[in-house]
Amino acid sequence: MAWDKLASPVSRYFFWRTAAGAEVDLVIERGDQVVAVEVKATTTLTRRETTGLRALQGDVGERFRMGIIAHLGTETRVLGDRLVAVPLASLLGAGRIPSSETEVTVDRS
After folding, report:
1. pTM surpassing 0.90?
2. Are 50 and 69 spatial neighbours (Cβ–Cβ below 8 Å)?
3. Is residue 37 part of a domain?
4. Is residue 32 domain-resident?
5. How many domains does the chain have?
6. 9-67 confidence digits (pLDDT tens)
């Protein structure tokens, strides 16, 4: 991301996977801090969805600042120590995603 190059230290973005198959969609590493994001195309979350985040948290230890599961539901929930679930729309700053029947007006000024 262009704006990130202005920050010091610069963030690194990557996918993370273990030999055992645990994975995280997006890991953001800045200095000695790590934030992880999992994107799930579901409205119902189970403990299974936190497997990759928990594995990364164990792997990086105190460097782990937060793990986020972005999902298609509407609830924000705390899932555990430094683990949260948030609606994908909220994470993207879009608020509620309109349904296909909702008319969307775009201000072109």
Report:
1. no
2. yes
3. yes
4. yes
5. 1
6. 788 999 999 999 999 999 999 999 999 999 999 888 888 899 999 999 999 999 999 99
